[in-house]
Amino acid sequence: MSFERVAIIGLGLLGGSIGLAVQDYLPGVATTGYDADPATRARAHELGLAGTISETAADAVRDADLVIFCVPVGAMGAAAAEVAGSLRADALVSDVGSSKESVAKALADALPGAAIIPAHPVAGTEHSGPDAGFAALFRNRWCIITPPEGADPGKVKALSDFWTALGANVELMTAQHHDLVLAVTSHLPHLIAYTIVGTASDLEGVTQGEVIKYSAGGFRDFTRIAASDPTMWRDVFLTNKDAVLEMLQRFSEDLTALQRAIRVGDGDQLFDHFTHTRAIRRSIIELGQDDARPDFGRSDHGGTNT
Known about the structure:
The protein has 306 residues and is of the alpha/beta class. The chain is 52% helix and 11% strand.
């Protein structure tokens, strides 16, 4: 099977990028879009983020055979409930949320009987809103699909083919494993970035102007990550709290070990640890998941994975 009409609910960075990518890479597929914010709908219309911008979520999904929810994970259930009476019986429902177990439950509760296959394109930037979208966002990025037990293999393949057509590399895994992996690779780094930037801004002995003026490259990278959408990340931490807390505990233990190495002057432990982490960075570049240029290629479109 393949999709003929795709409805996008939520027209920010990810939703807008999906709309633009479908138009570029799947020109025969019709798109409809909806956002709860009237100003966002108006701007999405100006930018041409979808073929049709609907005034209600129900209108947007009415004829769609694929519906993708691109709203914060905490709003998935409410957004799905809005369209419960308007979905086609054979429509496939998916999403782009960064936590999967909670999203799968929210969608299933709101849409009993619907075919639901959650997904997470691991792509994004620190920018948000309809103006932030661009068609190439998903090129050579991973999209993790988390089919529930008993999912229709044909629909799983169709969703995989859809994301592949948008340029993504597709991986299948369970929702539980996804949430643990992303807690390590995305959620914890964002939490650390928010904390470091907050700590710097609260230091009494260093002015905010000095923090901004003398920011070294590492701190600038942290501020870029910490500039990500607050609503989205609030919801991610609340909906994936078990995995995040587990990784935060592990990080705290590792940080304590490094703290002790610094205190006792154990240069060998520090050197060995930094050598190991340097190799991981090089592996990420070799896999094409980031750029070795001094600005990490941010000048092309800006961004970070989420």
